[in-house]
């Protein structure tokens, strides 16, 4: 049972719906960004409006532990054999500066010049990654625990000290490979728990080969925008093993070490191959100019951007966004419409407390500013091969991908019952209800029910009072429907329970909070 080491330190994080989330990557040189003046790397939150002090992180650098000389360290696996496999292009350590305003015809960036593109990204679906196979045992290994069991034991021992072990890993990495530091955000606060969470996610998916392969391939493709190269994997693996040996002394030994080496080599191969294949089809990132910025409430903005190259996606998916004010810090936002003929993309963003990117997008971004977008991701999409009803539950800005799904059904012209439950804390937070009610008036197969947690007396006459999961149960059963959930992780968890209790089989419930649910124990393998 292979476990990725290291998994994407940027993957995961909470999203409002999949509407907002977390992730980081390599940044342009200080001073290269516009919309706020030169900005050197700094600790969050530096600007006065974020309430920070601008102090830089001071992590004591550990001394590298002597490593056994007989152990073969993790090697960067070669690209898959067979037909000439595309190689990951030699991307720069830091992406080039973003322009203040994109020209009418944007010249290709350095990385794009080395990436032949047979079609715009998404014109054909990316090939699925082959199922991950358990790494073979070393010669002579005929008894004792298998690799998966050895890896689980290591993680069980390290879990109580996961924060310290992860901090040690990053400090060791930056001491031994200082050139890799610029690929990470200035502040490492949000990084510390992601490594261990991603390890746990992979371990708990280890019995689901297809899901694990998809998870790892997504990490490999996502790493491209950070400037990650195949040559980086051995250094990262060596430091990971050093941290594991330091913080799991009871379970660590030659046999366990070899299990981790085999797992890491297998996992990195999946990620490298996925990145190489993706490089044949798409740029690592897109520049996107803000063309519209509409404040719906004091905390929520509807932002529309124009990407500099064709950007194909599916309704219900999300992407990662980087702003010029917080280099190397990426957050996830769902597309708030189905693909448009004019190529514009719209996002619903809520400024959350201490939210670096969300606060900048809501309070600082203006038309003309340039953002960066990662590739589209997510599997909460419409299955147009079936006529099953769709039960769509969106909380807060999680209504954005739900609206996109409804528009997708409209555009395909195939009527099917669609029931939407739109939840918010108060009627004031139902910022997109007018649009949803207009869609309901135009299409008889669509029903929209707003739900507010505040006491009765909502300004909307048809609003239901109470919690969103309770309202879903009240109007069930829903056994003839496919479920779609979008919102904060807590709402997703309670929503899954409500849908299952209302008759929707778990395998017909779609959302994009897989890692969060696995880690909370809400989803188990099989």
UniProtKB/TrEMBL annotation:
Name recorded for this polypeptide: nitric oxide dioxygenase
Sequence ranges of Gly residues compositional bias: 14-24
Annotated region (Disordered), positions in chain: 1-149
Protein family (similarity comment): In the C-terminal section; belongs to the flavoprotein pyridine nucleotide cytochrome reductase family.
Primary enzyme class: oxidoreductase
EC annotation from Swiss-Prot or TrEMBL: 1.14.12.17
Organism: Streptomyces bathyalis
Cofactor: FAD; heme b
Tagged with keyword Thylakoid: no
Domain Globin stretches: 141-276
Bias type Pro residues, positions: 59-106
